[in-house]
Design brief:
Radius of gyration: 31 Å
Number of helices: 20
Largest sheet: 8 strands, mixed
């Protein structure tokens, strides 16, 4: 008979009992993690959110018959006496590992069917099956811990932002559609036939309007919704970001305010990994030329260099001919310290071909071999090969790889090659978080498909030089040469945050959009709320947004964003657990003044 003096379900959690509790009567409730039969002695590992406790039942126990029936993931209540584990059976890896409960009564609170996905251990099961049964997947130790760590990280961010003088605001979820950026998720209006709300891609305009309203420092752990095609490094549909805005600031003020917050979070949850003590500020053009990426992995020490002049008029006719023909052509060198073997160079060449390239030129240096080895070395000669080696600070046992062409077209491949060399030669410091600000982004870029100038980043960024710079830039090249007060924060090859100082002057806003072919009337129609606000005293302001999901992924060492998110969609943007997207009833469509057109029957 159950002890009525105890709570109906538990006197302790499954992570609470310790050696001091020996001889107490305890009541626990939780999930059966696993059952072990040791020659008639039954052991049940009982699990709840807080931990795991070992339950013991022997044939003399009144609970033994019930213990024989329970299976994995059944929910049970156990009454019993806390006792020391026998000598040699203590589990030092468990907080409760010195004790066990000798069961006197077991009640089944809920039985479980045979599991479609296992909970015990870390099995490699198909992801779609795991997402369909996400409530089971979330019981797994690693995923459960990831979610709790996410909560701790978000709580730390909130505390640090509040201590830095920021106020947390909640901005609307139903808003107006914006033609800029990604596709909106549209919400049809029942009251206004043919009109739609949109879910916010980000609270960008609202947070700027808060600055117009005089609130000075805003932050929010904001949900963002974007109807984008699925990408491996992005959660489809929705994600969360630390959204920030500040009044009366310049770019350096944003950095000096936010860097301690973000560094502090990384240091707190780094699990002993080192964190960059002071984030370097790397101009966009330098990041591209040195690392082949605007989100470089700075744990990789390799720095690319321009070696064009060593190939000009050289015997390596492929590169020399390209240089002579087109002034845009450059030759970049990717150093490979410790990669000085033909086997490694051939392996990198094969990798490049697998990436759709014709190959990857190289030189490597062996003991007693003048001027380097490989076809490139033979063609350019000993003097030029030695000059390249000296420029890059290489030595015997090292190699160098080359990419050539218009850097705008090959820099991404060069960056991939740099990453590959670093990984293959084990040069990357896996025990560090290397953070940096990327600054001086171009204000505009050329849209080759539409043959027009587009914004390269946030259309609300202030150009460096302000309105005067916009008015002075007349030609296409001058406009494309404008830089913005736009910046990203990167870490270990990922973009963590993006931000800018905003363009807060109405005339400058009109001029900035005008360079992309948007008329003043269109600006006022699309961004009427913000444009009107700029007419009535707008403070200089700026901010940023940092991806919560990506920060957590890096800090817990997860392989993808779905490992740090409660109920994510799959890669095809389908919620397999809840069955979304789903069809709705004809009545619902009628109320919303909508009808569904079969895509196969569209004109």
């Amino acid at each position: 008979m159950a002890d009525q003096t105890l709570h109906r379900y538990r006197s302790h959690t499954c992570g609470a009992l310790r050696k001091d509790d020996v001889d107490r009567i305890a009541r626990l409730s939780g999930w059966v993690h696993r059952v072990r039969d040791h020659g008639g002695l039954l052991f049940i590992d009982l699990r709840d959110h807080y931990g795991l406790t070992q339950i013991v039942a022997d044939p003399e126990s009144a609970a033994f018959k019930m213990a024989e029936t329970v299976r994995s993931e059944w929910v049970i209540r156990v009454d019993g006496k806390v006792r020391d584990r026998p000598a040699g059976t203590v589990n030092p890896d468990l907080p409760t590992g010195e004790v066990e409960i000798f069961a006197t009564e077991i009640e089944v609170l809920s039985a479980a069917k045979e599991l479609p996905v296992p909970v015990f251990g870390e099995p490699d099961y198909p992801e779609d099956l795991r997402l369909q049964y996400r409530f089971l997947d979330l019981r797994r130790e690693t995923l459960h811990a990831n979610i709790m760590q996410r909560l701790a990280i978000v709580a730390s961010i909130r505390r640090r932002m509040t201590e830095a003088g920021f106020f947390e605001f909640s901005t609307p979820i139903l808003t107006a559609s914006s033609p800029e950026g990604a596709r909106d998720f549209l919400v049809p209006s029942r009251l206004y036939a043919g009109k739609f709300y949109a879910l916010p891609q980000a609270p960008q305009q609202y947070k700027q309007l808060l600055m117009m309203s005089g609130f000075d420092r805003y932050f929010q752990i904001a949900p963002c919704f974007r109807d984008e095609d699925p990408r491996a490094d992005r959660l489809p549909g929705e994600f969360y970001q630390l959204d920030v805005e500040m009044s009366f600031v310049e770019q350096a003020d944003v950095f000096s305010t936010m860097e301690p917050v973000l560094r502090g979070v990384f240091e707190e949850f780094s699990n002993s990994k080192s964190v960059t003590p002071s984030f370097p500020r790397i101009p966009f053009a330098e990041a591209i030329s040195k690392y082949g990426s605007d989100k470089p992995d700075l744990r990789n020490p390799l720095v690319m260099q321009d070696v064009t002049e060593h190939f000009r008029d050289s015997g390596f006719k492929v590169f020399a001919g390209m240089i002579a023909k087109d002034p845009k052509v450059r030759v970049w060198a990717i150093p490979a310290p410790g990669g000085g073997s033909r086997a490694f160079c051939d392996r990198m060449n094969s990798w490049a071909q697998g990436e759709g390239q014709p190959g990857l030129g190289y030189v490597f240096w062996r003991e007693g071999e003048e001027g380097g080895a490989g076809p490139v070395a033979k063609n350019i000669g000993s003097e030029r090969a030695t000059a390249i080696r000296d420029q890059l600070g290489l030595k015997v046992g090292d190699a160098v790889f080359f990419t050539a062409g218009d850097p705008e077209k090959f820099y991404k491949f060069a960056g991939l090659a740099r990453d590959k060399v670093g990984q293959e030669l084990k040069l990357i410091d896996e025990n560090s978080f290397a953070l940096a600000w990327i600054v001086d982004f171009p204000m505009y870029e050329w849209n080759e498909d539409e043959k027009k100038i587009d914004f390269s980043h946030n259309p609300f960024s202030m150009p460096q030089g302000g309105l005067a710079a916009l008015e002075a830039a007349k030609s296409k090249d001058e406009i494309l040469g404008l830089k913005a007060y736009q910046y990203d924060l990167v870490c270990n090859g990922y973009e963590l945050a993006s931000g800018s100082i905003r363009n807060h002057l109405p005339d400058a806003m009109i001029k900035a959009f005008g360079n992309t072919g948007v008329t003043p009337e269109e600006v006022q129609a699309r961004f009427g709320g913000m444009y009107r606000a700029f007419q009535y005293g707008a403070p200089p302001h700026g901010g940023m947004a940092a991806g919560i999901d990506r920060i957590v992924m890096l800090l817990v060492g997860a392989k993808n964003l779905r490992e740090v998110t409660l109920f994510p969609m799959n890669q095809q943007a389908v919620d397999l657990l809840m069955g979304a997207p789903s069809e709705v009833t004809p009545k619902q469509l009628k109320e919303l003044h909508l009808r569904v057109v079969d895509p196969d029957k569209r004109a």
